[in-house]
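Help! Submission page says 'invalid entity' but I think these are all valid:
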Amino acid sequence: MSAALSGVLEFAPPLVLAALGGVLSERAGVVNIGLEGMMRFGAFAAAVGAFFTGSPWLGLACGALAGAAAAAAHALLSLRYRADQVVSGIALNLVALGLVTFLLEATFGSSGVSPPVPALPRDASGRTALAWVAVALPILLHLVFARTPLGLRIRATGENPHAAATAGVRVLRLRAGCVLGSGLLAGLGGAALSVGILGQFDARMPAGQGFMALAAMVFGRWTPLGAAAAAFFFAAADAFQRQLSFSVHAADLRLQGIFLALPYALTLLLLTAGAGRIRAPAADGIPYDPEGRS
Amino acid sequence: MGLFNIGGEGQLIWGALAAAVAGRALDLPAPLLVPAALIAAAVAGAAWGFIPGVLKMYRGVHEVISTILLNWIAIHLVHGWLVAGPLAARGSGSSVSMAGTDPIRAAAWLPRPIPGSRLDLGLPVALACAAAVWFLLTRMWLGFEWRAVGAGAVAAQASGIATRLRVCQAMALSGALSGLAGGLLVLGTEHRYPGVFRTGYGFDGIAVALIGGATAPGVVAAGFVFGAVRAGATRLQLVGIHPSFAELIQGIAVLLVAAPRLFAPLLIRLRALSRAPGAPP
Amino acid sequence: MSALELRGIVKRFGEVAAVDGVTLSVRAGEVLAVVGENGAGKTTLVGVACGLYRADAGTVRVLGRELPPGDPRAAIEAGLGAVHQHFMLVPPLRVWENVVLGREPRRLFALDSARARREVAESAERSGLSLDVDARVEGLSVAAQQRVEIVKQLWRGARVLILDEPTSVLAPGEIDELLRTVRALAAGGRGVMFISHKLREVLAVADRIAVLRRGRLVQVTAASEASAVQLAEAVMSASEDWSSTPTSTPTPSSSSLPRLLVRDLHCDDARGRPALRGLSFRVEAGEVLGIAGVDGNGQSELAEVLTGLRRPRGVLQLDGQQGLGPRGWARNPGAARKSGIVHLPEDRHGRALCLPLTLEENLSLGWQARAPYARAALIDRPGRRRKAEELMAEFRVHPPAPLARAGDLSGGNQQKLVAARELRGGPQPRVVVAAHPTRGLDVGAARLVHAALRSAAAGGAAVLLISLDLDELRAAADRILVLYDGRAAGEAPPTASDESLGRLMLGQAA
């Protein structure tokens, strides 16, 4: 039991951080399909940073900054130039796929994995400091949303930007900040994969974790605590599935795919069943036009 | 029609699997087996595409979210379970099977009309599909109704168009095309559902559709360009250009398409300049 | 010193002056009502006053301070608060959160919610508005949401309040309560500008009443010296000269069945409040029935019911055929159209046209599967083109370019396009539902539309002409039915006087 729990705490941070990033951006009204790409940039930059500085902590910082830089492109396109937010996110994922593959080879001369890089220190149960960040950050973000003027403004902006603007909120600036924060978190999540869990960068990273983070965000009804809980739950399913794959029984192995599909199927089921009650922020994905009427 | 089908990947996977199963299980002569397997692929893709349409129109689930979820459900169910378990090739033993399903019958292979060329019937089929979609959208009133729903759902509904039905149909057709693409890959290239299926065609498809301006001729053109970029990437490698440039170029192209406002001021200036050649800029 | 002073305000949209040289002032402690028809310039005037629009000429002063044009923040800072027709509220947030949004009281980094809740509750109480500060706005009635908007302005220190059509969303009991609140706010020393087109309310609440017509100030009278009848005349005086439109006599139907029979019809509006409350009438084939009434008395919902867009209860018959129920002709828009009901909707952008599509495509919308627009499953492109050119010539659509986009046409030409499609694009209609078909049209285009409506009637259709313009109804209708509060208030011949129609529109017996 405790082994399973520590497995969850080991594998959950990337998912939790990215899911929180999704929550932050979408509660402000900007759809972020690009989480996967931001994680990829973050994972790679963290590995590079750790490799060349020798410090996993500096690597972590590099990862977060790379995620934020990718998010800046998303913010620029979707806010300043009012590009479709879904399209912009898809494009970001594609660019991340190609650019990182190229940079991996250019930097390390390999198309598969980077050389091992300094990894974050682990405690006796294999947890890194990020495990505790993954526990604390959802609570912190929840408090920001519920108890601060900033949180109130973010929530209002994601629901009705015109009302927020007439009340004196600077909508575009606030949204840009949330998208950057989202990228920072997703980048950190990606870094948690490379310098946290694996100790090297793998060309396949983040292997769909960004999309799973999106699912966790939806499953958690766009709330920090809900999304984090969903992310922990998905990570638990993942950890269980990993344990299965170590087992020798081929019969179990064949069920692996069902376990992997489960989080997505559950999210879809929840959306279908609770259609009326589970809704995205009302202005999610709708570009804000200051001159337009609501 | 104003809908995002990000589910191309999942629809393609089911289409490929359906073609692989049909191409193995049905004992028919080639002229019948190939179309039968392709139809199976299209039907499987259509079914997977129909789900988000229904969920959107009757339960209000946004198609972007549902299609992403359905992609991953398909990926894991097919790769992690069906192809590794119930449909795994016989005799692959208890080890992690990378072999995929049993190979399809030779009768189900897509013919290669030009001897010595890798070109198979997939290209003509794809072109025929593009022509059919173009015809449907611009020459048939059913396609006009789809476009009307995309251009103004409220007005379309008020004019008597059954918007819910049309949305579900369009999503299903979109799925059928993705499924067909999967079927073509299996019958033409893989000849089985492989243990490691190069995924990503579905995502390429979105990029191609976006860059093609969501019109059939534009999509064919963009598809060719990207096909060439992909195929060329392998060869460009020989002269030192990395194959990952394919994705990179694709992504940047999508970015450029995504933000027309980025170029609008530039275009206006160019137009103004061309109109008044002597005027200072 | 005036609380709010508007001097020589001019605001043009393109060629049209929506507000044309209006000078008005609101004193502290007074309620100034501004009345006028739709399109008279009331909302534009409000927009200029609170900085949403930049005036082409004129100045706005609040408490003696001139406001910079087109700056809503400056207007708020100066003490001007506006409650718009569309509420600026965030539905999932609580009442107090909505009120303090953007100016939150803080304690260190945190929101001082205790203080915010206390202050909002005090603001509401002081002005006699009952409000649960912890309720979520989405669960509140429209009336309560309006109170939230008012409290929001008061909490922010508004000394001048502008209420834009505040009663148009309220039920009768709620209206009385709002009027009491408005009086109390004025008694407390605030200046209130009260925009409305409902004369009875205006007489009940205002100290002075200003009448706008076509962007100009027609009169300002003290409420004590004004009468409903005189105001109605001032608001509605002859706007257009329709007199040259020929009036035909209806052909009485031979059978006892009317073309359209409506009996005891009930339905709710989009917000779920009763809109039609037992409406009954009949229309014969060949007849133009004018539907008059102050906006919001059930006209829009009637049009939606008849065209299959809204489900009612009651009896609805077309030549004796049932309209309601799962097989009725009014079950959905497609079925209604198949039964020969055409619609010129009031919202022509959203409901009538697909703006990104071409003119010929829009002309075929609704008829796209029939000849001459289609042959079997295919679009008959030459047939569609011929028909489109014919229709555009007949209705003088400019430019007559079949491949232009509908969104690029002017409003008047868009309406001509809709009229052409509905009245002439398909088979001879059995019922025409025309909602404000000439709103925003110049006289020539309006005559064209009226002539087309009359000729549809002459061809055997029953025409329902919904309008707020009495002169239009007089010129084009055979009979005028007045709606009040979702019911038929009475019927009058087109020769009826403004006074008698005005009484019916105010819900008084003729």
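Support: the input was valid. A stray whitespace character was the problem, and the output above is from the cleaned input. Chain C has three domains: 2-236, 256-340+430-510, 350-426.
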